[in-house]
Amino acid sequence: MAGTMTDRFETLAVHAGAEPDPHTGAVVPAIQMSTTFKQDGVGGLRGGFEYGRSGNPTRLALEEAIATLEGGSHGLAYASGLAATQNVLYLLDPGDRLLMSDDVYGGTWRLADKVWRRYGIETDTIDLRDLDAVATAFAAERPPRMVWIETPSNPLLKVIDISAVARLAAVAGATAVVDNTFATPYLQRPLELGADLVLHSATKYLGGHSDVIGGLIATRSDELAERLRFHQNAAGAVPSPFDCFLIMRGMRTLAVRMERACANALMLALWLVDRPEVERVHYPGLPDHPAAELVERQMRLPGAMLSFELRGGEDAARRFAGAARLFTLAESLGAVESLIELPAPMTHASVADSPLAVPASLVRLSVGIEAADDLSADLEAAFAASAS
Ligand SMILES: *Cc1c(COP(=O)(O)O)cnc(C)c1O
Question: What 3-state class would DSSP assign to 94?
Answer without folding.
Answer: coil
